[in-house]
Phosphoribosylaminoimidazole-succinocarboxamide synthase
Amino acid sequence: MLLYEGKAKQVYSTEKENEYIVYFKDDATAFNGEKKAQISSKGILNNKISTIMFEMLHEKQIKTHFIKSLSERKMLVKKVEILPLEVIVRNITAGSFCKRVGIEEGIVLDEPIFEICYKNDDYGDPMLNDDHAVAMKLANRDELQFLRNETLKINDLMKEFFLKMNLKLVDFKLEFGKDSKGNIILADEISPDTCRLWDVDTNEKLDKDRFRRNLGDLVAGYEEVLARMNNK
Ligand code: TMP
């Protein structure tokens, strides 16, 4: 049964109480849904790339919702209740950070920047600080501390992983959920829809900025990311 439909994925229940199926669609949106397109095979690429990322993180003892890939577009996951927070890390300046404060794109940051946003399209996913998140009862202080520590650990692992394939991890967004025991685990997807990835030598953008900013064929970019992952 379809439980939830987002911009890029659908979530279905299964006959098992604690397992869901995530279905990766071909829909691409940007600017809170203002720009839209169907990009043939994007969902297949994101499912494959997310599978590799979740398997890599699992090997490094990070707990995630991933159970296994079921087909080209379907992933079996643990049932979680998604926290209404988008967790962002920036290693290099880009995107909304540049727009908001007028800083140039491409500056390597001395330390990663950790941001949280309220996952709510009606309000354009506004950035929050910890006090806002606690006041809104989106998470408590211990949970926020855990999210920060876990996300920065994941950042180190992902940065190292992508560097091996000559890609710079510029920034990315994660979502976490609570499992049936109340543990917070990594959920959602990790793909070029949710990460900015630039070639180390040329700074060519191989992520969703190709769609957001009309920088070239999106599928060719995602295929290049997947090919590098498979060849490493
Ligand atoms: P931003 O620079 O637009 O804030 O994006 C930061 C990172 O988060 C970037 O890698 C893209 C990702 N992201 C999402 O996955 N979903 C979103 O809705 C937004 C706005 C960004």
User: Anything to note?
Assistant: Residues 88, 94-97, 125, 171-173, 193-196 surround thymidine-5'-phosphate (CB under 6 Å).
